[in-house]
Amino acid sequence: MALELDFSRKTVVVIGGTSGINRGVAECFAAHGARVAVASRNPTKVEESVAALAALGAEATGFSADVRDYEALQTGIHDVHARWGDFDVVVSGAAGNFPALSRDLSVNGFKSVVDIDLRGTFHVMKAIYPCLKKPGASVINISAPQALLPMQAQIHVCAAKAGVDMITRTLALEWGGLGVRINSVIPGPIDGTEGMARLAPDPATREQTAAGVPLGRLGTPADIGKACLFLGSDLAAYISGVVLPVDGGWVQNNCGGMSDHLGQLMAGSVGKG
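Below the sequence we write its predicted structure tokens.
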């Protein structure tokens, strides 16, 4: 049976939607009829992404803001709301990461990742709340395997992303009575992204990573986009508070030994954070 998801007349906002996984998510919604707003720190990337989404036939807009700057983020979100009205779907995906053992990770390095991933997610949630369609909105936070599994050289990301998933679960309680659903998606190793380039910087490591995925391949941004389409649709109308791995089974396989790989890679390094 063929199934086509139609987001015509739906407003979708993708924070971090100008590159990597989040760009793929934005493109998926655009290809399925949504009008899409994207946001990131880089105004050039915002402009280029809006043009690319428009080329897919979508009504598109965007704004530049750092998720660590609540006032700038709030202004951009409220500008989109003034233009298009209440949001049907919001995807919050801004993130920061770099491998560093705790012994070498600076205080500022730890703070930077927590500020982007965790505080940034809270800023997005607070800013979008008055703009959400109530009832009916779907909010999707982009998490990471580090939220579930401890991983060497990732203490900052593990702490921050675990916090993101607790934001998801807590707001499922607080916002459920308003008819707003909120879930997290945990991407596996996604090919062609900055995160993958940092965790698997050479062809041998990429091959090793793919071999550690039970489905036998790296993921694509479209794989995550399709999961977000589902969670944003009426097919998921009774799903809220879920932390959903979209990873080919990677987490079940302990991320294919990525923790040991990063620990060995960083052993003897100094000043990586």
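The chain has a mean pLDDT of 95.
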